[in-house]
Design goal:
It is a single chain. 33% of the residues lie in helices and 17% in strands. It has 7 helices and 6 strands; from the N terminus they run E-H-H-E-H-E-H-H-H-E-H-E-E. The longest helix has 16 residues. By secondary structure, it is of the alpha/beta class. It has a 6-stranded mixed beta sheet.
Length: 186
């Protein structure tokens, strides 16, 4: 199955390098302009996170397609870090513990990275099971969602942070049910 993973366009929070998880921000003008300047591969089906930024991105790229919302593709709940950037969190002992953990410690009053990954992978597995191998599937989601799925399925293997992708960009892949091969970067 051919799959196109696309990270949503930029939001105001992305421009300020803020942790934007549960905050339902729309795209900013710069994000919309960037999306309109990129040629994306066509798809048969479009799956998206329920967050405004993903739905707007999906509608801009695939305006002629029905968009299926997958609730558990939403971004991680960053808890106390939500809406803040690294400058604002400098000196925060909880933030320093999270940094020192390599990003594996739970977010205070938020989601644990392992629970987030499990949620995204379960949604991915449920969603792709509904389509046959000849379907070209676009997933318009968050960077963390893409990183979670590819950490588990990408071949050659890589760590979570090896699959970071800028806003409005992503990967064209082939999925055989066991591994995802990245064939092109968008």
């Amino acid at each position: 199955m051919k799959m196109i993973f696309i990270r949503h366009g930029k939001t105001a929070g992305n421009l300020e390098k803020r942790y934007i998880g549960r905050t339902d921000e729309p795209l900013c003008e710069e994000g919309i302009s960037e999306l309109e300047s990129i040629k994306y591969p066509d798809s048969d089906e479009v799956l998206a996170s329920p967050m405004k930024r993903c739905l707007q991105t999906a509608k801009l790229i695939y305006s002629d397609k029905k968009i299926t919302v997958c609730n558990d593709f939403r971004e991680c709940d960053f808890g106390d870090f939500e809406g803040k950037n690294y400058r604002e969190l400098t000196g925060n002992s909880d933030y320093q513990k999270w940094i020192d953990s390599g990003g594996t410690a739970p977010f205070p009053n938020g989601e644990t990275p392992s629970d987030f990954k499990k949620r995204c992978i379960a949604e991915f597995e449920k969603a792709v099971a509904e389509f046959d191998k000849n379907t070209v599937l676009a997933l318009v989601v968050h960077g963390g969602t893409i990183m979670s799925v590819l950490e588990k399925y990408a071949y050659p293997k890589g760590g979570y942070y090896d699959f970071q992708v800028p806003n409005a960009h992503g990967f064209v892949t082939e999925f055989d049910g066991e591994k995802i091969i990245i064939t092109e970067r968008i």
